[in-house]
């Protein structure tokens, strides 16, 4: 029957054109170009039947202690070792919104970023642009203020800073103020003026008396305390059950994840190695991170500052998924985001596979891995 069918097809010119057309369509479907990495993959490769390693991985992160996982992963060589022949290209950012703009614009493949910025990019792309594939840091954020400010009521009429409008600390500050009866509107009006700016500028502005405090990640909160005489009004850990909340997660472009799961797995392997080394070697990790901060920013921290910054946080591969909806609720309450269905934002399959390989327990996605 098959031979008769093919004979009939071969007997007509029209059928010959049909075969050509089908071949073209199949070729167009199977072959896809990943413009972000300059490589070509196939559906077979995406399915895992052949290597899906990318030629290049473009990674964003901050020169912050809250990004110690990335800082160590790069400087200690854990990422390079795990990635093998894949070239690692890095870019430093001050805050998450600018970093997520780069990821949405196709300039980054992966990024270490706070949950609020990841949520904003996820919502902006209607759930299409990224997936959270691992955690990185819990804790490490504080509201530090002038010594004369001793309560939330004292903040009325004051000016506070955050790293960038809509970033994780910016959302945390605005939500906390709202919960305590003070307004800090996105347009700059309200009981408290919030001035988003570069962290280094915040330190200078505080020293000059132009702002009254700031909600900052480490090491900037510690620098404000040690160098400018600020005092801690709120340690963000006190606002979360068990003191656990995601400060930094690893996100990956969905296109890159689909085209290069092997490379994403290697990046996660590098992260696991980096976090394990940090945990096992805290003193050496502080020295390495401090050396890298000096190289990246031009200024090292004092021994007391780096020690304090590390004590305020914990590195973790767990993205603390159960806290993400709270982060979304905070952003919605402050008018920075519209409520978005978060089902599908996590893809922890590769992380849990690698954790199991090391004999470690799986981490939870809080039911947010699929639509």
Describe the protein.
- With 371 residues, the chain is an alpha/beta fold.
- The chain has 16 helices and 13 strands.
- The strands form three sheets. Strands 4-3-5-12-6-13 form a six-stranded mixed sheet, sandwiched between helices. A five-stranded mixed sheet has the order 9-8-10-7-11, sandwiched between helices. It has a two-stranded antiparallel sheet with strand order 1-2.
- The radius of gyration is 24 Å and the shape is globular.
Provide a compact summary of the structure.
By secondary structure, this protein is an alpha/beta fold. Helices cover 44% and strands 19% of the residues. It is built from 16 helices and 13 strands.
Keywords:
single chain, 371 residues, alpha/beta, 6-stranded mixed sheet, 5-stranded mixed sheet, 16 helices, 13 strands, disordered N terminus
What is the fold's blueprint, element by element?
Layout (H helix, E strand, L loop, with lengths): L1 H9 L2 H18 E4 L4 E4 H4 L9 E7 L5 H8 L2 H6 L3 E7 L2 H9 L5 E4 L1 H10 L5 E10 L1 E5 L13 E4 L5 H12 L13 E4 L2 H9 L5 E5 L2 H9 L2 E5 L10 E8 H6 L1 H20 L1 H16 L5 H9 L1 E3 L8 H10 L15 H9 L14
Parallel strand pairs: 3-4, 3-5, 8-9, 8-10
Antiparallel strand pairs: 1-2, 5-12, 6-12, 6-13, 7-10, 7-11
């Amino acid at each position: 029957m098959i031979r008769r069918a093919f004979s009939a097809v071969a007997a007509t010119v029209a059928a010959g054109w049909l075969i050509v057309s089908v071949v073209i369509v199949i070729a167009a479907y199977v072959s896809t170009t990943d413009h972000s990495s300059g490589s070509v993959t196939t559906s077979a490769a995406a399915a895992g039947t052949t290597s899906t390693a990318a030629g290049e991985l473009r990674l964003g992160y901050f020169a912050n202690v809250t990004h110690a996982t990335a800082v160590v992963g790069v400087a200690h060589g854990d990422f390079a070792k795990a990635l093998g022949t894949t070239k690692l290209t890095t870019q430093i950012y001050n805050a998450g919104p600018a970093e997520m703009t780069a990821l949405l614009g196709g300039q980054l493949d992966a990024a270490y970023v706070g949950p609020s910025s990841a949520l904003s990019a996820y919502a902006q792309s209607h759930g299409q642009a990224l997936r959270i594939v691992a955690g990185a840091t819990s804790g490490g954020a504080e509201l530090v203020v002038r010594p004369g400010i001793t309560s939330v009521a004292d903040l009325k009429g004051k000016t506070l800073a955050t790293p960038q409008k809509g970033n994780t600390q910016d959302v945390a500050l605005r939500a906390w103020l709202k919960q305590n009866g003070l307004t800090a509107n996105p347009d700059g009006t309200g009981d408290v003026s919030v001035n988003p700016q570069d962290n280094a500028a915040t330190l200078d502005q505080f020293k000059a008396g132009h702002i009254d405090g700031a909600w900052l990640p480490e090491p900037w909160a510690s620098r404000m305390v040690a160098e400018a005489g600020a005092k801690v009004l709120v340690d963000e850990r006190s606002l979360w059950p068990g003191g656990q909340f995601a400060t930094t997660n690893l996100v990956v472009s969905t296109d890159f994840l689909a085209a290069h799961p092997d490379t994403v797995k290697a990046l996660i392997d590098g992260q696991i190695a980096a976090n394990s080394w940090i945990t096992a070697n805290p003193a050496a990790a502080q020295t390495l991170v401090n050396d890298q901060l000096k190289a990246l920013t031009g200024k090292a921290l004092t021994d007391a500052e780096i020690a304090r910054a590390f004590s305020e946080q914990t590195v973790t591969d767990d993205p603390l998924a159960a806290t993400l909806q709270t982060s979304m609720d905070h952003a919605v309450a402050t008018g920075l985001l519209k409520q978005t269905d978060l089902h599908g934002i996590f893809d922890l399959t590769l992380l849990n596979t690698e954790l199991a390989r090391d004999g470690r327990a799986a981490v939870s996605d809080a039911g947010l891995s699929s639509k």
